[in-house]
């Protein structure tokens, strides 16, 4: 079958610029859809193989990179009749095959100028090698002279960055100036004057000690292992995003990715996106702990507290988030070039300039989710919405203490019922099915991604589980210091990780079989399978809190994980910036392997 990813040498192409007209030093990336031809045995093989959409790429859908000068020379060597015979008009294509033109700059002009040329060029290659033909459409064109001009927004980013740097330098100097020979102890303590504390709030040295300091509160000290779990979970999320970007950019050994779908161990990686539920559970648990701690210090909690707390969270999260958003909307496209760079950077710039407000209002998991700016930020929006719902539930159980069990029970039933109904009425499978074809567009066109993976109302189960567990833990921690140390519970604790891996492997049945849908058992399987992570998480946390294994407790309490865990929020919002530079900045087609993902 034809290779899915194949690109002309970009540097060789643009290196012809001094020898050719300025217009000729252009490189275009296109998508080709092979035209059905039942008389061809190769086409019948492609069709049969591609029909297994859950485990295979669409091998009738090709990514190609063309040097315009090479194609021009090729077409000029053909007689007019041959060129006309090679041209294929657009036919009915029953699947999303190309990123919308408005995501790039000046695509319509390039299609008008080079569309026919590339169509003939690609069909010449397909005819020569495979005796097939297809419709080829330009996705975008790039070249050495196609730079994005600087505008006011670009300058504003530089000004803001310079102001932050100036603020850090001046605050650090002022903090040092007021140290009064106290040495490092000066930076570790809060200053008595509020004005001085504000002026030193951007001090580099003071913030370093804040970052690495241990909590003075006993409860937070008991739960500091959360930082290690947060850090390791974040690392797994990054590995998963690497897998997505391998497919969204290009790689040579596509058959190896397809082979993973036939391996139970491969499904641990493929379905690893469920690990994000651990983040939701931890978030709900900590919300519950902090809420109960605050509530114990206050006489009464009013509904107004929800607005105040949600507002405070917005102020705490948004500045760093907005800064990274502005970086993606301005300077990201200017950092590199190459055949894939516009797909990774130019699209991001245009989407961020168009849809930035959905991010800052934390609704980007519902509004314009198919044109995402900082796509990983769907989690921030979802978590923000879940935080609000969790807060409402906690205020309710505080004000109506007689109905605690009823409120938590109803919340749990709703958390199972909503995703079950979504799965049933949309004829979805019992797990979030991650197909290779959906990965090629990072799920922008995937219905299940938009309706079941990123909305908060389908992710509420593990968050509610965390809230309930945090509430119970806070209630019993003062009266039960040793916890339940029965052999059965310890056995469950040690079995949690193997059971979690088996749960991921179990997803394989929905890739191997096409069950009749809608189905009641599939609708119920989805939320139960997904929310099993809340149960696994609760058992893991219980065992660590009550020291079931001293070695594991000492590892997760290692002091290095405290600053690493505290940095995960900023690392999360910025890590895709680095991944885009790595994956889309490449000149060569990559080779997929687990080692390259981890590295």
UniProtKB/TrEMBL annotation:
GO terms for molecular function: acyltransferase activity, transferring groups other than amino-acyl groups. Residues 225-588 form the Acyltransferase domain. Keywords: Membrane, Transmembrane, Transmembrane helix. Pfam families: Acyl_transf_3. The chain crosses the membrane at residues 155-174, 229-248, 268-293, 314-332, 377-397, 404-425, 452-472, 492-511, 531-548, 560-578. It comes from the Eukaryota. InterPro entries: Acyl_transf_3_dom, O2_lipid_transport_reg. PANTHER family: ACYLTRANSFERASE 3 DOMAIN-CONTAINING PROTEIN-RELATED (PTHR11161:SF22), O-ACYLTRANSFERASE (PTHR11161). This is Acyltransferase 3 domain-containing protein.
């Amino acid at each position: 079958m034809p290779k899915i990813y194949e690109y002309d040498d970009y540097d060789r192409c643009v290196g012809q610029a001094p020898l050719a007209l300025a217009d000729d030093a252009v490189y275009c990336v296109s998508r080709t859809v092979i035209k059905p031809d039942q008389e061809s045995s190769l086409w019948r093989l492609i069709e049969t193989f591609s029909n297994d959409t859950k485990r295979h790429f669409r091998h009738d859908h090709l990514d190609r990179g063309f040097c315009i000068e090479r194609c021009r020379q090729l077409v000029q060597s053909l007689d007019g009749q041959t060129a006309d015979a090679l041209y294929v008009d657009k036919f009915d294509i029953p699947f999303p095959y190309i990123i919308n033109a408005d995501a790039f700059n000046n695509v319509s002009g390039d299609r008008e100028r080079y569309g026919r040329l590339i169509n003939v060029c690609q069909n010449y290659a397909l005819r020569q090698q495979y005796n097939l033909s297809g419709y080829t459409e330009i996705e975008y064109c790039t070249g050495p002279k196609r730079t994005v001009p600087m505008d006011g927004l670009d300058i504003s980013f530089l000004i803001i960055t310079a102001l932050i740097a100036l603020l850090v330098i001046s605050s650090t100097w002022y903090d040092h100036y007021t140290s009064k020979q106290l040495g490092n102890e000066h930076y570790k303590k809060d200053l008595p004057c509020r004005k001085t504390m504000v002026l030193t709030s951007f001090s580099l040295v003071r913030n370093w000690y804040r970052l690495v300091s241990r909590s003075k509160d006993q409860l937070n000290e008991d739960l500091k292992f959360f930082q290690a779990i947060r850090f390791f979970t974040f690392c797994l999320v990054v590995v998963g995003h690497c897998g997505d970007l391998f497919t969204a950019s290009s790689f040579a050994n596509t058959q190896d990715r397809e082979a993973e779908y036939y391996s139970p161990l491969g499904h641990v990686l493929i379905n690893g996106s469920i690990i994000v539920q651990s983040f939701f559970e931890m978030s709900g648990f900590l919300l519950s702990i902090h809420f109960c701690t605050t509530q114990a210090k206050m006489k009464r909690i009013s509904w107004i507290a929800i607005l105040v707390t949600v507002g405070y969270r917005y102020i705490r999260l948004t500045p760093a988030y907005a800064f990274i958003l502005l970086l993606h909307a301005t300077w990201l496209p200017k950092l590199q070039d190459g055949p894939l760079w516009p797909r990774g950077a130019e699209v991001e710039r245009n989407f961020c300039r168009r849809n930035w407000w959905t991010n800052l209002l934390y609704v980007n998991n519902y509004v314009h989710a198919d044109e995402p700016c900082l796509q990983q930020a769907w989690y921030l929006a979802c978590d923000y919405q879940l935080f609000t719902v969790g807060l409402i539930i906690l205020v309710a159980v505080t004000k109506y203490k007689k109905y605690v069990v009823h409120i938590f029970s109803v919340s749990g039933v709703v958390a199972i019922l909503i995703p079950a109904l979504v799965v049933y009425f949309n004829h979805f499978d019992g797990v979030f099915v991650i197909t290779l074809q959906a990965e090629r567009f990072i799920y922008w066109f995937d219905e299940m991604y938009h309706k079941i993976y990123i909305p908060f109302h389908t992710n509420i189960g593990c968050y509610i589980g965390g809230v309930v567990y945090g509430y119970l833990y806070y209630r019993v921690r003062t009266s039960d210091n040793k916890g339940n140390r029965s052999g059965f519970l310890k056995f469950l604790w040690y079995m949690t990780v193997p059971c979690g891996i088996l749960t991921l492997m179990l997803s394989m049945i929905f890739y191997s079989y096409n069950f009749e849908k809608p189905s009641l058992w599939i609708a119920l399987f989805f939320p139960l399978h997904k929310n099993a992570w809340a149960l696994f998480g609760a058992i893991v946390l219980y065992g660590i809190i009550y020291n079931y294994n001293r070695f594991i407790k000492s590892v997760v309490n290692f002091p290095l994980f405290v600053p690493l865990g505290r940095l995960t929020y900023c690392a999360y919002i910025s890590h895709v910036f680095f991944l885009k530079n790595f994956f889309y900045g490449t000149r060569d087609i990559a080779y997929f392997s687990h080692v390259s993902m981890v590295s």
